[in-house]
Automatic annotation (TrEMBL), chain A:
Biased composition (Low complexity): 197-214
Role summary: Involved in exocytosis. Maybe by regulating the binding and fusion of secretory vesicles with the cell surface. The GTP-bound form of SEC4 may interact with an effector, thereby stimulating its activity and leading to exocytotic fusion. SEC4 may be an upstream activator of the 19.5S SEC8/SEC15 particle. SEC4 probably interacts directly with SEC8; it could serve as the attachment site for the SEC8/SEC15 particle.
Localization (cell): Cell membrane; Cytoplasmic vesicle, Secretory vesicle membrane
PROSITE patterns (UniProt xref): ARF, RAB, RAS, RHO
Residues covered by region (Disordered): 189-214
GO biological process: ascospore-type prospore assembly; autophagy; exocytosis; Golgi to plasma membrane transport; membrane addition at site of cytokinesis; protein transport; vesicle fusion
Protein name: Ras-related protein SEC4
Alphabetical UniProt keywords: Cell membrane, Cytoplasmic vesicle, Exocytosis, GTP-binding, Lipoprotein, Membrane, Nucleotide-binding, Prenylation, Protein transport, Transport
Membership in a protein family: Belongs to the small GTPase superfamily. Rab family.
One Pfam entry name: Ras
From TrEMBL, chain B:
Organism: Tetrapisispora phaffii (strain ATCC 24235 / CBS 4417 / NBRC 1672 / NRRL Y-8282 / UCD 70-5)
Source taxon at top rank: Eukaryota
The name this protein goes by in its record: Rab-GAP TBC domain-containing protein
Transmembrane residue ranges: 419-436
PANTHER family attached to this UniProt entry: RE60063P, TBC1 DOMAIN FAMILY MEMBER 20/GTPASE
Length: 214, 483
């Protein structure tokens, strides 16, 4: 159930160079959890369990020699759960908007999701559009349509298949790299500049190399 | 009341034998209570350890109690039949139901059996929605209905039943019309008595219920409450546990179709007539895991920038850990049994609406023999839907209000003015808005802000603040004059 992994080996009390909070959003059944499970656990189950409320996984990746801890938040797709899930948008550095290429309605709803993001997320959060289930022959949304929408919204676009493991790693690595670039060019600060997070925990607090949870 | 001795002195084998004996004994007593139609005795048995023991007798117990708690007139039942037979009207949530049904019973490994169960699940959810079109389906409802179905179908016999090994097109191929009726009645009663609050189109009432958890913890462990600042955190960690009565995580086992812990939670709710039980259980999980939570807190403090994220994650993960531990369940359930009634003062200080299940059908008060007429309960639902709509409008208004305010402050910051002036203007804006917020009519507030859009921001703000400060000065003068 838990996808939590701990990374061992540290010299400075921390086992990573930076943390990135990333959210997956999109309509119910587009495959948000499947993408996440494929990325974190390298597994696929066509009838993956419904997400109720919010779920959390973590994976540490290496980009340009730097260890980056990805905090991945998986959300329920049904509209009513937005009351809960939008509470987690705060402080997210990356947000993945997922639709299903075999279901036009989920594609049309991306605009609504985009609006929700602009209302609740930090202005400088990096967004990424993902068309999942690209392996399916019953596709109704073309690659061009996805491309067009991504240009209109001004965000990068990837088509992927959690089932065939196509482009899944690319989603997360592309996003992490883009965020890293933003951090490097000082557009966003590493210390977290959440709009009004109550308490900022100083990352230099240090932690044991083995953690109970994350 | 049946109690267990101290298990620590026994070997695990002995414990198994003993608990099996205990189960058989309990079954006998339950059969006696059923025979005597003694609802009070049944409720008493359902509340104690092991609940209704097993699925041979459990459906009969549930039906006996639920039919007693929710009275449906024969006229209602006739109408119901008519509606279902004639209704071709599709409920607006049927697409969502399909999506979730397709992801249900994932622990059942035989594809034909799994698919047949999904067929049955879909059938009953659609039937309840078409019969009560104002109920809205929520993700997680399917988990609860899955549990009721497995209990009523007495799945332990499934392997001997050949008819399960072919795909079905009609529920009658698998169950008698008597079973269908009993099962549907149980689903309908459980839904209307206990799940009503969750079945609007929003999560407002769900969140109201969740907010009771921190109050329960505060009473039990003030240190933990303060350390995690639980009053400043929305208890979203417990969302799926509450919405699914733990059936999202506690799964029905493959082959045996059993999960006695899960079933006994349902036993407790029904025999106490108390929907606060899932909340009490969750608070017990948290208090019980205090040491682990404090440890997890210390070792993860540097992994999160946001305190709320941190607390939510450690509580959710710890509880998920505990949910898969039978020993923890023993502790938590026995704690819950000792202290099942929640103090009504929690309700008074909460936002829970007065038609909520926690105030009537699932209040646990005058338990469990109080009965409700279905008309009354449907009326509660109607009132809840009205309150839900009102809340929605309120929230939209206050969002508009905040958006306008933030737009104005942004436009102030964009003006070519010295920093000091800009800051002064924003402070003025905040002062004015908090002053005007106290006006009961929200639309007035919005109008108030609209006049600041555009170029006259400084001037208008100045005038309003001038007026405001005059009022304040005048009242100060009055005060001085009095003294």
């Amino acid at each position: 159930m838990s996808g939590l992994r701990s990374v061992s080996g540290s010299t400075n009390g921390k086992n990573y160079d930076s943390i990135m909070k990333i959210l997956l959003i999109g309509d119910s059944g587009v495959g948000k959890s499947c993408l996440l499970v494929r990325f974190v656990d390298d597994k696929f189950n066509p009838s993956f369990i419904t997400t109720i409320g919010i779920d959390f996984k973590i994976k540490t990746v290496e980009i340009n020699g730097r260890k980056i801890k990805l905090q991945l938040w998986d959300t329920a797709g049904q509209e009513r759960f937005r009351t809960i899930t939008t509470a987690y948008y705060r402080g997210a550095m990356g947000i993945i908007l997922v639709y299903d290429v075999t279901d036009e309605k989920t594609f049309a709803n991306i605009r609504q999701w985009f609006k929700t993001v602009t209302e609740h997320a930090n202005d400088d959060a990096q967004l990424l559009l993902v068309g999942n289930k690209s392996d399916m022959e019953t596709r109704t949304v073309t690659h061009e349509q996805g491309d067009e929408l991504s240009r209109e919204l001004g965000i990068p676009f990837v088509e992927a298949s959690a089932k065939n493991d196509d482009n899944v790693n690319e989603i997360f690595f592309t996003l992490a790299k883009l965020i890293q670039e933003k951090i490097d060019s000082n557009q966003i600060a590493t210390g977290g500049n959440a709009k009004d997070s109550n308490i900022n925990i100083n990352s230099s607090g240090g932690s044991g190399s083995k953690s109970n949870c994350c | 009341m049946i109690t267990m001795g101290d298990e620590k002195t026994l070997g695990s084998e002995d414990v198994e034998v003993r608990s099996n004996e205990e189960r058989l004994l309990k079954q006998k007593v339950i059969k006696f209570a059923l025979q005597k139609k003694s609802t009070a005795l049944l409720a008493h048995l359902g509340r104690s350890k092991l609940g209704f023991a097993d699925n041979e007798v459990r459906p009969k117990c549930w039906s006996q109690l639920l039919n007693n708690q929710l009275k449906k007139s024969s006229e209602y039942k006739r109408q119901q039949l008519d509606i279902v037979l004639n209704s071709k009207e599709v409920h607006m949530d049927e697409h969502q139901v399909q999506l979730d049904v397709n992801r249900s019973f994932i622990t059942i490994e035989t594809p034909i059996i799994r698919n047949n169960l999904r067929f049955i699940l879909n059938y009953f959810i659609i039937k309840i929605l078409r019969l009560h079109p104002n109920l809205r389906y929520y993700q997680g409802y399917h988990d609860i209905i899955s549990v009721i179905i497995v209990v009523y179908l007495n799945m332990s016999l499934i392997n001997e039943q050949l008819k399960w090994n072919v795909p079905i097109n009609d529920v009658n191929e698998i169950m008698s019309s008597l079973t269908e009726t009993e099962l549907f009645n149980a689903i309908e009663s459980f839904t209307l008595l206990y799940l009503r609050d969750f079945m609007t189109d929003s999560l407002y009432f769900t969140i109201d219920q969740l907010n009771i958890i921190p109050k329960l913890i505060k009473d039990r462990d003030i240190f933990l409450f303060n350390k995690f600042k639980l009053d400043q955190l929305q208890p979203f960690y417990a969302t799926s546990s509450l919405l699914t009565v733990y059936s999202h995580d506690l799964k029905i086992e493959d082959k045996t179709f059993d999960n006695n812990i899960l079933f006994s939670i349902f036993d407790m709710i029904i025999s106490h007539r108390n929907m606060a039980i899932p909340l009490v259980i969750y608070s017990n999980f948290i208090v019980n895991a205090k040491e682990e939570l404090l440890k997890a807190y210390e070792s993860n403090i540097s992994n999160f920038e946001n305190q709320n994220d941190l607390i939510n994650v450690i509580i959710q993960k710890q509880t998920l850990n505990d949910i898969f531990n039978d020993k923890t369940w023993d502790d938590v359930l026995s704690l819950t049994r000792q202290n099942v009634l929640i103090n009504t003062s929690y309700l008074k200080t909460s936002n829970v609406n007065k038609y909520s299940v926690l105030y009537n059908t699932g209040s646990g008060k005058d338990q469990p023999l109080t009965n409700y007429n279905i008309k009354t309960v449907l009326n509660y639902m109607k009132n809840e839907l009205i309150i839900n709509e009102k809340r929605k409008i309120q929230i939209v208004r206050s969002k508009k209000f905040q958006l306008l305010r933030s737009n104005i402050s942004k436009s102030i910051m964009r003006m070519k003015l010295p920093m000091v002036y800009q800051i002064t203007l924003v402070v003025l804006l905040l002062l004015c808005s908090s002053y005007y917020r106290h006006f009961p009519n929200y639309s007035y507030n919005i109008d108030f802000f609209k006049q600041f859009e555009g170029n006259n921001v400084c001037h208008n703000l100045y005038i309003h603040f001038h007026r405001l400060s005059k009022d304040i000065l005048a009242s100060i003068n009055r005060l001085i004059a009095k003294t």
